Amino acid sequence: MPYADDMLIDHALAARERAYAPYSKFKVGAAIIDENGKIHTGCNVENAAYPLGNCAEASAISAMVAAGSRRITKIAIAGGAERIEDCTPCGGCRQAIAEFAKPDTIILLRKADGSVSRYAMTELLPHAFRLEP
User: Fold this and answer.
1) Three-state helix/strand/coil letters over 108-129
2) DSSP 8-state assignment for residue 20
3) pLDDT tens digits, residue range 66-111?
4) What are the pLDDT digits (tens) for 38-69?
5) Active-site residue, 57 included
6) Contact 16, 56 (CB under 8 A)
């Protein structure tokens, strides 16, 4: 079942509201559509050993894998401190997304002005490291 981009963004925004970010105050939510059309969400989870914790994108990927899926067909990300800010995935999350995405997989980023930017995986991580068997 295909989902509209705004629906996926809404899932990322809802996940952001559940984030646990008492140290940075920067809440992030992510929502993934997998190869079966299911949505998996994640939020950042900090702990007292800051900056150790889980990023939203990595949490959503973990939820996807735990559910038995292995492919990201689209991912939406929304983040910010008190309100939504422009928020791209960190380098580690870009690599984690690349592990489960194709080079042309779309990454949606909710911007501070309410608009949505669309990037292909290769635009955010042009030379992703891949282990090929």
Assistant:
1) EEECCCCCEEEEEHHHHCCCCC
2) B
3) 999 999 999 999 999 999 999 999 999 999 999 999 999 999 999 9
4) 999 999 999 999 888 999 999 999 999 999 99
5) yes
6) yes
Please name which of 90, 100, 83, 84 lies closest in space to residue 53, comparing C-alpha atoms: 90
What tokens appear for 48 in the block? 């007292």
DSSP 59-115: HHHHHHHHTT---EEEEEEEEESSS-B--PPPHHHHHHHHHHEEEEEEEEEE-TTS-
Which among 17, 35, 46, 57 is annotated as catalytic? 57
Which residues partner with 76 through β-bridges?
31, 108
Neighbours of 35 (CB within 10 A): 12
Could you tell me the domains of the chain? 5-124 (3.40.140.10)
Q: Which two tokens stand for residue 29?
A: 């939510």
